[in-house]
Write a sequence for this structure.
């Protein structure tokens, strides 16, 4: 216990270089963005939006609509995370494609392409369906990536002795998922789900108030209610909308997230029960309810047993397997040929657009990347400085967590852009005021991903290891060096990768309209925002692809190496 290697396995970190697959994925994502831009030109010129009522009676219905959109996006994100992360963790060939693709997808600045997403969908779908689908897709992009990274990180750090136990008992894939993999990753998955839900509020608000010139694409909901109240200067309506939003956030915390945290404590990897286990009054009520016991005995139990029995059925014959393999090879060949043709066409069209960018514009893009990188790094260091000690305190003290966790959930759910005007008002008079404000806004968009992951990591530290460190009378510094920081390391890396949302925040932090005038500073976010405002789609595509390339390169060269280090050296054993 006196050395960290006694708690974690030692191995050689694995590094993955750039490959042609990375180039193909990059071209594929660029092709999708290009197609979206082209479809946007076919959107209707004039769109009449809904009438937003500012009466108190409308608020409950608007709250229901917003929560349903968030729930649909979360269900899609959870399904995506489980399938995507599982495939990437256990299929090395697929992992070579899926993880670079995930790096690229989570680095796409979706805020800059909100107009493209909405306009392209309305060009091919009925308006009502297109707008709801666009809102769900936008929220999905804010929820899925950190959940997928957390699930992947959990699967790749399962202790080897537990994997060996499942092999000894000859558990099939379903039973291994049910009894080992999902329980082991449950704590991290729930905390990242809470972070995803909190971050989704900002994108929900953005999708519900979206307008482009004479095209009104608003959706009835809390976001459009608050925007309409602000436009009319109705202070009473604004306060009622904010109170409703806080009521929804607190209600979900008490009825959903706190019960899930209390339930997930059973999955902590330890041989000694903790003293300060998380509690929930609603979880206690539901657990002791006779109706729940009846459902568990007569419905949930039989269904689960039927699924288990189904998975234990005899495997297919060798002939059926060979026929399935031959058909899969045929389909795979057709898909690869079609994908190659699409990538070739996409690369040609992208190069055609990028050749219109001047040398001066490319120099400006590179300078903007450097400036934004410096701000992102500053925001990340500030976030790490306070989230690690605070997250450990919340994650290891159940009573403190019961008080602070709802407050953290509320603060994380407040859209960062709602605080930006206050920051601007106080900082613009200082030297470098917009730079300071941009860093603070990036901090607001970064810190919660780190905090929630640190809390998850601290919560997962086994109680018996804490007792062991106490019996050995380790000092605070030694305990942090040999137990806490090694245990947190995989979670910190996951939080740092998903905190790449600071790059997305740069779009609204570096180019703002305040007091009737437009303010901007040097940065890739300001380049993207300016190109969006001026309709310069060539510059928009070039700046966005440059940002994606920068984020993916940083993830691959720096963060992914640390991810491998966490997988090989800091696995609980």
């Amino acid at each position: 216990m006196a050395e960290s290697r006694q708690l974690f396995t030692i191995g050689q970190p694995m590094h993955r270089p750039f490959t042609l697959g990375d180039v193909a994925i990059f071209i594929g994502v660029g092709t999708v963005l290009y197609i979206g831009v082209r479809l946007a030109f076919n959107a209707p010129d004039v769109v009449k939006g809904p009438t937003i009522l500012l009466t108190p009676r409308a608020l409950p219905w608007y709250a229901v609509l917003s929560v349903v959109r968030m729930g649909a996006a979360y269900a899609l994100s959870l399904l995506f995370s489980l399938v995507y992360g599982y495939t990437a963790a256990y299929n090395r060939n697929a992992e070579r494609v899926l993880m670079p693709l995930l790096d690229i997808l989570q680095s796409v600045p979706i805020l800059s392409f909100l107009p493209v997403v909405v306009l392209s969908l309305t060009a091919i779908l009925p308006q009502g369906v297109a707008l709801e689908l666009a809102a769900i897709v936008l929220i999905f992009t804010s929820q899925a990536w950190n959940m997928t990274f957390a699930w992947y990180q959990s699967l790749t750090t399962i202790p080897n002795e537990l994997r060996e136990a499942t092999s000894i008992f000859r558990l099939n894939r379903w039973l291994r998922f049910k009894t080992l993999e999902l329980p082991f990753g449950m704590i991290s998955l729930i905390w990242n789900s809470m972070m995803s839900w909190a971050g989704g509020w900002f994108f929900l608000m953005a999708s519900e108030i979206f307008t482009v010139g004479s095209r009104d694409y608003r959706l009835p909901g809390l976001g459009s209610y608050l925007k309409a109240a602000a436009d009319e200067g109705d202070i009473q309506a604004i306060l009622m909308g904010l109170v409703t939003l806080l009521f929804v956030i607190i209600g979900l915390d008490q009825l959903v997230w706190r019960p899930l945290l209390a339930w997930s404590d059973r999955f902590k990897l330890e041989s000694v029960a903790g003293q300060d286990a998380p509690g929930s009054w609603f979880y206690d009520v539901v657990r002791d309810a006779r109706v729940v016991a009846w459902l568990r005995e007569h419905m949930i139990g039989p269904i689960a047993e039927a699924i288990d029995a189904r998975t234990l059925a005899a495997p297919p014959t060798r002939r059926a397997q060979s026929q399935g393999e031959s058909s899969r090879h045929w389909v795979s060949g057709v898909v690869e040929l079609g994908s190659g043709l699409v990538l070739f066409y996409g690369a040609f069209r992208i190069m055609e657009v990028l050749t219109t960018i001047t040398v001066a514009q490319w120099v400006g893009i590179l300078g903007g990347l450097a400036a934004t990188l410096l701000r992102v790094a500053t925001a990340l260091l500030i976030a790490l400085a306070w989230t690690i000690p605070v997250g450990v305190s919340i994650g290891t003290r159940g009573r403190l967590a019961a008080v602070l966790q709802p407050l953290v959930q509320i603060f994380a759910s407040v859209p960062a852009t709602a605080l930006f005007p206050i920051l601007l008002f106080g900082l613009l008079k200082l030297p470098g005021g917009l730079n300071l404000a941009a860093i603070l806004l990036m901090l607001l968009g970064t810190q919660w991903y780190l905090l929630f992951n640190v809390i998850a990591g601290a919560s997962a530290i086994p109680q018996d290891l804490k007792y062991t460190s106490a019996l050995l009378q380790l000092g605070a510094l030694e305990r942090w060096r040999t137990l806490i920081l090694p245990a947190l390391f995989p979670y910190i890396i996951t939080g740092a990768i998903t905190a790449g949302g600071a790059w997305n925040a740069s779009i609204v932090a570096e180019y703002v309209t305040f007091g009737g005038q437009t303010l901007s500073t040097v940065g890739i976010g300001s380049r993207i925002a300016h190109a969006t405002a001026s309709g310069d789609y060539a510059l928009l595509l070039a700046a966005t692809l440059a940002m994606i390339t920068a984020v993916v390169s940083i993830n691959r060269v720096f963060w992914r190496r640390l991810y491998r280090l966490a997988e090989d050296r800091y696995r609980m054993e």
Residues 1-16 have pLDDT under 50 and may be disordered. Residues 10 and 569 are 4 Å apart (CA to CA).
